[in-house]
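Our consortium's second objective concerns turning raw sequence data into structural hypotheses that experimental partners can test. To show how far this objective has progressed, the report includes one record in full. It was chosen at random from the queue rather than selected for favorable results. The single chain below, 415 residues long, was entered without modification.
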Amino acid sequence: MQMNIAFVVIGEEIISGLTEEKNFKKVASELYDLGFSLYLQVVGDRKEDIKFALDKAEKFADFIICSGGLGSTSDDITRKVASEYFSLPLRQYDQAVESMKKRLEERFGRKYDDIPDYLKIQCSFPAGAEIIPNTKGSAFGFKIKKGEKNFYFLPGVPFEFSAMFDEFVLEDIKKAFPNAFKYEKVVFKIFGLTETQIENYVEQIGIPDSVVRISYFPSFPEVMLRIIGKKQQSFFEFIEKVKDTVGNFIYSDDVNKSFKDVVSDFLKKSGLFISVAESFTGGELSNMITDVAGSSSYFRGGEIVYTADAKISLGVSKDVIERFGTVSHECARELARAAKSKFKSDIGLSTTGVAGPDKLEGKNPGLFYIGIAYPDDRVESFEFFFNIGRKNLKVLGAYLALKIVLDFLKKTDRK
């Protein structure tokens, strides 16, 4: 059996360029570095195009993965096309109906004797297909085996697709190609270094023969470093050297842990409360903090203080603003102190800067300050300059503010 995987993306929103395709990226990130040959096709919601893509995929690979077109609207035609392509009539599966009822009852808190007609289509599959459960959404997937060929049809919603691929499809591929998965795979999620800087660090260490592949995946403002190698002593020694060299810039070695998840874990562990005062980040910092479930256990609150008057109302002295301006070390420190005081938290965090494109107080776009008020009443501020546009600057500012908090919590944790 050849290590070929074919992928068919189905959806007018993808081929038209209106929606970014993410599911193939997921598959490629899991399989390409292990030596699999990948073949990608993207088609719209036309029956002829989907059948053509399935035929091409079948000739290339023994494993064919399709995403999209399994919803309940009229343009979701994947299951109907699959029925015609394999000459298998669509059948309603009772187990799918019962599972759908249970989901509706859990969601809406009442009993359902039947499910709405528009959901019944999601419970119909080509006869003989194996249902692939969807723990993240309503649309089931299904698998059809045609001789030695394995076809998988999954929803196009990325977080649903990802879970179903990991829990079902990837397990089948591992069973079929066990030798491909004998390599060790290590992931480092990094913030604070560019892709080029990381590569330079890695090359300076010296790469042993036991390393099969090193890949860099930038996703602003982070970079994921993935190293695949043979399970030999030289490989594990190399990994330790990378840890030592890149050091504080690595925030996690768990591919499923986001930066905000890691900060959340440390805040929960510390037992400290945090509050924020934001200017140029405009709520981005508060959003990152509250994106994580359970954030109410450590986040007291925040304010967006965009104008000088708003900053004064929060507690920044008028004299500081007149002497140093709103974009200054002094203003950032007073904002952090004011946030900590108002919300009675242990840590106060602030952002103030020039998002652009115009200058502010004679200061250039890209200049910003982050202030932090610590539990022992010390206050610090940090100056940064990155002229990268408003949107990116807001995201980077929020990341850097949380990185300052994370560094403090790590030091405290080690004491």
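The partners drew two points from this record. The chain has a mean pLDDT of 95. The CA atoms of residues 241 and 247 lie 9 Å apart. Both points have been shared with the crystallography group to help prioritize constructs.
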